[in-house]
Amino acid sequence: MRYSGWQVLAQGLTGNRGWHPAWRSPDPRPDYDIVLIGGGGHGLATAFYLAKEHGLTNVAVLEKGYLGGGNVGRNTTIVRANYMLPGNSEFYSHSLKLWEKLSGELNYNVMHSQRGIINLFHSDGQRDAYARRGNAMINQGDDAILLDREGVRQILPYLNFDQTRFPIYGGLWHKRGGTARHDAVAWGYARGADRRGVDLIQNCEVTGIDIEAGRVRGVQTTRGAIRVKKVGIVVAGRSSQVAAMAGLRLPIESHILQAFVTEGLKPAIDHVVTYGMGHFYISQSDKGGLVFGGDLDFYASYAARGNLPMAEHVMEAGMTLMPMIGKAKLLRSWGGIMDMSPDGSPIIDKTGIEGLYLNCGWCYGGFKAVPGSGYSFAHLIAQDRPHAPAARFRLDRFATGHGLMDEEGTGSQHNLH
Amino acid sequence: MHIPCPLCGERDIREFTYKGHETYLARPAAGSAQPLWDDYLHNRENPAGRTRDLWFHGQGCGAWLLVTRDTVTHQVLGAHLSREADDAG
């Protein structure tokens, strides 16, 4: 069924009996041309673009839990293209353009809201860095406005401008940035892929990858063996374990990133605001909850929950920046498993094994990349050559030293990202 | 999380800085071939479960510790001085 205002009206008048599940639930077939391991945002987007852009529909997405039950279902939903380094800038620029037409393309409202992102700065040096970043964003065809202190005060009057340690000097305003409804992104891509014939198979864990003579032959799963020509690993958070089934050792260390949501409040925060000095970022969801987070917990973890020191740190930073949120009641917190690469940038590449492709290392920023990642990974799998905007996301860049994308300038070392 | 420092006793995690997997102790010899260095610096086992990693007790005794812990439960199973790593096996 194609969703429309007319359908809402028609179904409303006929007892809402015509709505159907948004995707089928087929049993796995014994063979496919392409299997994608991982039914999260990136995997579902890849399946959708394989079908839509390349006409490949003999495809299965294998998900060990339920669709969208991983990181795409637990993140702070920010969408932006405020990157600077070659490799990252054209990729996220491409991804943002896909976001802007996504609801129409999927016939599914992903609630993409370009409410604008303001990155605050707190020193002359940081102002220079943001001016440079803003210029890079404009050069890549995106938007950026450098605000001075009074400019920020006009837009965000509720901030505490009188902090003694990190006074607000201004901000970099990325108007096309914003948020989207994370679950809807997964569901929209799932429905779009299913409608084009892709099999979405839930509760199906991959337990082995069959390789003969350096070539992928199939996968072993909890629902039987599947013969397959090409396999894409797109399992952020579990990349190391799945790749190990193919004998690969990845430049990945998994860390936990916590986020927090308050009770629903009246609209108060109209933008996404980031406070780099305090490691804090915040937006308000369409339901009214304040959604915010900070840094990684900074040690290898798969616990899907953090520890209290980082929670305390985030609350302190939030209270420093906007004391008004102090009376909001915190409803819940959660931790997502981030597969961190040494330079903080992603990997979309072939592996040394023919027919095996890898999409991982999204670190703390996988959500905004969902459309671009899916589009580029589908291109790589379908055509066996990298898609131009993602051509620098090479697996071997750590070995060669060429093309490292250390966006934060902290160094390409595991404990720094 | 608390880490049982062999010199200071059990201390809050905030006193420590994380370095990473004990791979960092197996430093290739100077002049080793490039693939060894890549493996040492970047590639990781990254286990979901029991692991051993290096922590620096910067706000305590200043020692480097090898901590055995579970990455799924956050349970800390033990810690000893990294210079005694060979003795501890």
What are the defining features of this structure?
heterodimer, A: 417 residues, FAD/NAD(P)-binding domain, D-Amino Acid Oxidase, Chain A, domain 2, 8-stranded mixed β-sheet, 11 helices, 18 strands, 28% helix, 26% strand, B: 89 residues, mainly beta, Folate-binding fold, 4-stranded antiparallel β-sheet, 6 strands, 13% helix, globular, EC 1.5.3.1 (chain B), sarcosine oxidase activity (chain B), SoxD_sf (chain B)
The percentage of residues in β strands of chain A lies in 25-35%
Helicity level of chain B = 10-25%
Text of the CATH class of the largest domain in chain A: Alpha Beta
Fourth CATH level, the homologous superfamily of the largest domain in chain A: FAD/NAD(P)-binding domain
The total domain count of chain B is 1
What's the Cα radius of gyration of chain B? 14 Å
Which range does the strand content of chain B fall in? Answer: 35-45%
* Mean pLDDT rating of chain B: 93
| Backbone shape of chain B | globular
State the helix count of chain A. Answer: 11
Would you identify the CATH architecture of the largest domain in chain A?
3-Layer(bba) Sandwich
Number of strands of chain A: 18
- What's the architecture of chain B, going by CATH? 2-Layer Sandwich
Which CATH top level class of chain B fits? Alpha Beta
Summarize the helix and strand pattern of chain B as letters: EEEHEEEH
Terminus-to-terminus distance of chain A: 44 Å
In helices, the fraction of residues of chain A equals 25-40%
Explain what you see:
- The complex is a heterodimer of chains A (about 425) and B (about 90).
- With about 425 residues, chain A is an alpha/beta fold.
- Chain A is about 30% helix and about 25% strand.
- In chain A, helix 2 packs across helix 10 (about 370-385).
- Chain A is globular and about 65 Å long.
- The termini of chain A are far apart.
- With about 90 residues, chain B is mainly beta.
- Chain B has a single domain (about 1-90), classed as Folate-binding fold (2-Layer Sandwich).
- Helices cover about 15% and strands about 35% of the residues of chain B.
- Chain B has a four-stranded antiparallel beta sheet, with no helix packed on it. Chain B has a two-stranded antiparallel sheet with strand order 1-2.
- The interface of A and B includes residues 398 and 415 of A.
